[in-house]
Amino acid sequence: MKKIGLTTTVPVEVLIAAGYKPVDLNNLFITSNNYFKYIDIAERDGFPKSMCAWIKGIYGACVENGIKEIVGVMEGDCSNTKVLIDVLKLKGIKVYPFSFPHSHKREDVEIEIKKFMDIFKVEIEEVEKVRNRLNKIRKLSKKIDKLTYIDNKATGFENHLYQVSLSDFNGDIDKFENELKNVISDIKNRESNDKKIRLGYIGVPPMTGDLYEFVEKFNARFVYNEVQREFAFPRGDKALNIYEQYYDYTYPYDSEFRIKELKKQIKERKLDGIIHYTQAFCYRAVEDIVLKQKLDIPILNIEGDKLNTLDARTKLRLEAYLDMLLDLKGEI
Q: Which keywords fit this entry according to its UniProt record (predicted)?
């Protein structure tokens, strides 16, 4: 199968039906043992230091790993993606466009997905067959999610990892399905690990993966990962078709649509607080203003840049925030 790079989650059902192996460049970048080299590649090629590390990492991962074709999301994702695509084209990489329409009208979403299917010359019947197959695997991630927030057995990091990986199914659908089944079996055999503070994580997946382990030192744990859960399409099995599934996907659309789902999850998971992660030099940082106005829950905004571990200042802020939440619960 030919590899095709993704700058974010897109209708992979179309790509797989067309005989491609999707590769999420974000995951390729951040899981590398030497992730910093990808940022260095981008900066050597002229990307400014005052640009989001994710964009530079995606660029470096694409170039260094010989990805010859990518899907570039022109609307509904990072505003820097457009210029990233222009530079990748200069490198001779073929770019296929896709957009999540700002209107967020079901008919507009359908038009964009039909355009996408036309580009890759696949029919809706082929796509739906793949969608049904993938949704069986996505159901396994829902089990891990329930093992996190109901049974208190899966860790926040496991919840993050196995949901975020569903953007490309780690490049091998069958292998990833078996991995999920084994992980679920292992987690079910654990003792419950309840903590006093139940946290939600919102915003783009973090550069700083040690965040999850760090908060667990303070009688707290993450029981909700917002965007990662959306990558796993938790409501996809209820959608009648692929058009409905991607219409109901909160990440690329307006804040109001996203906030409705956030409020629902805050209540259902009995969250005490939320960590809102934003990336340096990213326009999404401004969303923190809206979220703090609209969500009736204590929110701490932390910002990441190039490091894949928490810095000392952020650790101090997290510790103070968690102490405050414990105080509010009358535990101090």
A: Coiled coil, Iron, Iron-sulfur, Metal-binding
